[in-house]
Amino acid sequence: MPNLEFLEKADARMPVSRRWDVSPVALVKTVRDSSAWQGWRMETVHARRPLAERSFQNGDSFILDFGEELVGKLKLTLRSKENYNDSPVRLRLIFAEFPLEIAERNRKYTGTLSRAWIQDEVITLDDMPQTYTLPRVYAMRYLFVEVMATPNRLVFEDIRFTARSAVRDFVPPLPEFSPEETELDRAAQRTLRNCMQGVLLDGPKRDRRLWLGDLRLEAQVNAATFRRFDIIERSIYLLAAFPQEDGRIPACVFDRPEPYDSRTFISDYAFLFADLLWFHYEQTGNEKLLKEMYPLAAKQFELFRNYYRNGVAQEELPAWNFIDWCDGLNRMTACEGCYIFGLRKLAKIARRLKKYSDAKQFEQEAGFLSNELIRQKFDPKKGLFVSGKKNQISCASQIWMVLAGVVTDADARTLLDKMEHCRNILKPVTPYLHHHLLEAYRIAGEKDKMLRHLHNYWGSMLKKGMNVFPEVFVEENERLTPYGTDPRINSACHAWSCAPAYFLRMK
Amino acid sequence: MPNLEFLEKADARMPVSRRWDVSPVALVKTVRDSSAWQGWRMETVHARRPLAERSFQNGDSFILDFGEELVGKLKLTLRSKENYNDSPVRLRLIFAEFPLEIAERNRKYTGTLSRAWIQDEVITLDDMPQTYTLPRVYAMRYLFVEVMATPNRLVFEDIRFTARSAVRDFVPPLPEFSPEETELDRAAQRTLRNCMQGVLLDGPKRDRRLWLGDLRLEAQVNAATFRRFDIIERSIYLLAAFPQEDGRIPACVFDRPEPYDSRTFISDYAFLFADLLWFHYEQTGNEKLLKEMYPLAAKQFELFRNYYRNGVAQEELPAWNFIDWCDGLNRMTACEGCYIFGLRKLAKIARRLKKYSDAKQFEQEAGFLSNELIRQKFDPKKGLFVSGKKNQISCASQIWMVLAGVVTDADARTLLDKMEHCRNILKPVTPYLHHHLLEAYRIAGEKDKMLRHLHNYWGSMLKKGMNVFPEVFVEENERLTPYGTDPRINSACHAWSCAPAYFLRMK
Q: Cα separations (Å) of A491 from A17, A35, A102, B124, B337?
């Protein structure tokens, strides 16, 4: 049974959507370009006449660029040129975040997630002239329109997109930002803005729900930019409203049509809940929320404490352990890093709530586990932490050892340096883990490396033509998708990727 | 410029839609059957469980039968069985008047009219549970549903169709009707009911507009059944509101989104306008309407009078001459029949309005033309009227000679008998002309033949499984379509086919 008090509090923090109309900025076409993301870019078509002065017949198609990725609804105003509407108008529409979605529109879908996520529609309109707003919300920058049937030449009097988000205006860049940094900041803010809907969505095109792990990163960027703490609190209350019977916090909840639980649990996300709470408290001073959430945050560690009784777990935790989308990644050391990291934040919460004996116990446990990890999982020859029975070496393990404070200061810097220069190391796949890499550099006092990595990784995305940051970005494998073999299913605007707006302000 | 006074009067007679919810009566499947219309019939599937107790996965499909053809909107209430809605739901829907539309749904469309008339949709619904009403109005008896994508097993809690028409209840059959006559009457009334929307539509699936020629027949059946003279008057005012610059009355107007002219003219329809007015006057006594419309009705003859100055036109009238959908039909004699028939009614109107000299002139002209037709176009050897330079023999010519009073009484009966027994005669294609054939029998005093033909022609439609009467019915060519080669484009419920409810009451 959901916690109705928490649901009420979530309701009370429902953000009001800002809405604004956006007109297309250009008529474009897809062009093959090996230097562009996935081999496709949009090129402006130098049309002499505005769209409303042109007309289209059966089989014609065109692509509009709205200038930036937006989330909202499409409104079409149509008339037939001769105003003799002998039959309905039938259109095929594709809403695209990136050029490949339009350029490869006719390929058979080969993803493992539902085909229904692909944002395409066939609509039939009986009466002309007509202004029609499609009922669904889309995330898009580009709109492909194909005239499948029209009684005579069809005129698009007006096509506009009514964008929506809890926030509309971007926070200004810092004066010292370089032009690239300004652009990185803008794309990061746009990514976060597009995800700030009824809750903090992970992605407005696909998934469209609230994830605990994503929320934690979004809360950081939000604090550095929009500072809409009402939405953060709403999201926290929603997650907390649906504990499982044994007390597990859901990794994810749905907010529509009515909030409901996903019955999904991710161990590392659960351990990080304490950090989300502590960060929010530091930003807002909301001690009441800390108090309300403390039992739930503490419960997550209780549930798994026994697995770490010998200092290091003997097997993978019996849950979904996420850390990163990365085939073959052993997550045991990184998960324990999350456990220690969260536990240290839980201790801070306990201390703030004057639960001193709790606090002390958590601190001691964190200290014990840290020492055991060094003793059992640090390979002194390589100078790196290993994970699992096969002693796998991954960036994920090193990052979480630094974040968890298992190694600190000069040791942390040495570890990150070894990691950087290790050849056969499993690298991060998602911007989610790259965000934690930036944080590890920051905590270790390696601000130059932090900025260098930020410019390298997120800067590459800009150079590839992105204006928002995606769910997955691996420069060497642009068509990589975690869901089968069809990159159209990938989310190009994913809130866990909005790191730059936060870290650029940490200089 | 439209006549704004007439438009206002049309507005004032806008019917209020009756609405009623209809649930499906059976789960059915398409079955090949050479004795059924177009080789397909629906067979009831003996499902043990009601639809709402079943669930469906990707790729599943089913067909619902709503028991009779209805016009209106579809409302779906959906939920996913596990209430875990990981992704949107995508459905393919086909709304069908007759089984072939579903059975042959995947054939490439080969009609000449717009593909947009085919009533199929792909819809994507983001939130579950959800009740969704599709925005368009459909004409259908059968609904095909294919689950293209669902996050888990999908449950159709409720599927209902909100039917709409200006009339809801059928007029009771006469006590003396046989069971087949009762069924013929019911199907005819259903056909008319489905077309009684904002105006008298020709067909609710395809075309969806007001035609002058169809209106005239509908007005007859309406007088014998629903007696909704407001809609007849609204339709007359709409047509009269859009005369062309030279005074031609449009053959057709559109009523949505705002009334506008089709710029279509059909000579024979224009001549028959006078008959529509006179019939309406006889039913209602509305002399004011006669007075308002008299100049427009008279104008139609003025425009073409010169072509008949020698008694018979020397060439086809320079206009669309309809008479029937029939390849190769020579329409000259039949058109002149319409001219005379209309002129005689115009004379009656003139007399009623005390325009005696007009009336006399029209009567004299009708008499002159009748004599000339007998002199120039009657083949005494064959005993039949011919048409055009090649002396074509068609049923259309004979029918209109009887209706126009060119031949009467025993001569008319002889002519119809010759027609019946002539081997190489062009036969009627559409129920529109079959309606006129019934009327010719009636006028000639051949009520038995009238009823025999009614039972033969419309009775065959019932035997083929129809519950409404179609635009085109030729028993020997079930897939005949006036628009290319794809019978899916045909209208199965076409108001010009609702004759039985009128003629059965003429016994």
A: 22, 21, 15, 18, 69
- Identify the closest residue of chain A to B86 by CA–CA distance: A207
Which residues of chain B make contact with A130, given a CB cutoff of 8 A? Answer: 257
3-state secondary structure of B413: helix
A129/B90 Cβ within 8 A: no
B33 touches chain A (CB under 8 A): no
Return the residue of A nearest to B252 by Cα. Answer: A86
Q: Cα–Cα distance between B431 and B456 in angstroms, integer?
A: 12
State which residue of chain B sits closest to A122, comparing Cα positions: B122
Which of B221, B277, B284 lies closest to B435 in space, CA to CA?
Answer: B221
Tell me A191's DSSP state. Answer: H
The four Cα atoms B330, B333, B335, B336 give a dihedral, to 10 degrees, of: 160
DSSP type of residue B504: G
ipTM for the predicted complex: 0.92
pTM of the predicted model as reported, rounded to 2 decimal places = 0.93
Among candidate residues A469, A506, A460, the one with its CA nearest the CA of residue A190: A469
Given a contact cutoff of 8 angstroms between Cβ atoms, the answer to whether A163 and A107 are in contact is no
pLDDT tens-digit series, residues B95-135 = 999 999 999 999 999 999 999 999 999 999 999 999 999 99
Where does A89-160 have alpha helices with state H? Answer: 99-103
| A87 interaction partners in chain B (CB closer than 8 Å) | 113-114, 116-117
Contact, A166 vs A18, CB < 8 A?
Answer: yes
CA dihedral B19, B23, B29, B35 (to 10 degrees): -50
Closest by Cβ to B114, choosing from A129, A149, A257: A149
What chain B holds in terms of domains, given with CATH numbers, is 18-165 (2.60.120.260)
Contact A274/A312 with Cβ under 8 angstroms?
no
Query: Is the CB of B282 inside 8 Å of chain A's CB atoms?
Result: no
- pLDDT exceeds 90 at position A46: no
User: Could you count the other beta carbons within 10 Å of the beta carbon of residue A356?
Assistant: 11
Structure tokens, A346: 């839980």
- Say whether residue A258 is in contact with chain B using an 8 A CB cutoff: no
Read off the pLDDT band of A84 (50, 70, 90).
confident
Instruction: Tell me if chain A has a CB within 8 Å of the CB of B90.
Output: yes
| Residue in chain A lying closest to B129 (CA) | A257
What digits encode the pLDDT tens for the residues B53-92? 999 999 999 999 999 999 999 999 999 988 888 899 999 9
CA distance B68 to B161: 11
Tell me how far apart the alpha carbons of residues A99 and B368 are, in angstroms, rounded to a whole number: 74
Chain B residues in contact with A257 by the CB 8 A cut-off are 127-130
A254: chain B residues, CB-CB within 8 Å: 85
| Interatomic CA distance for residues A147 and A131, integer angstroms | 16
Are residues B318 and B266 in contact, defined by beta-carbon separation less than 8 angstroms? no
Q: What is the pLDDT of residue A83?
A: 82
CB contact under 8 A, A149 and B115: yes
C-beta atoms of B114 and A254 within 8 A: no
The tens digit of pLDDT for each residue in A476-498 reads: 999 999 999 999 999 999 999 99
Q: What is the pLDDT of residue B507?
A: 66
> Would you state the pLDDT for residue A507?
66
Cα dihedral across residues A398, A404, A406, A411: positive or negative = positive
The Cα–Cα gap between A344 and A365 comes to: 9
Q: Cα–Cα distance between A400 and A385 in angstroms, integer?
A: 10
Is the model's pLDDT at A207 over the cut of 90?
A: yes
Site from B124, B254, B483 to mutate, A interface, most A CB atoms within 10 angstroms: B124
Inter-chain CB proximity A122 and B126 less than 8 Å: no
Q: Position B447: which residue type? A: K
Cα separation of B234 and B229, whole Å? 8
Residues of B in contact with A113 (CB under 8 A): 87
How large is the average pLDDT for residues A282-293? 98
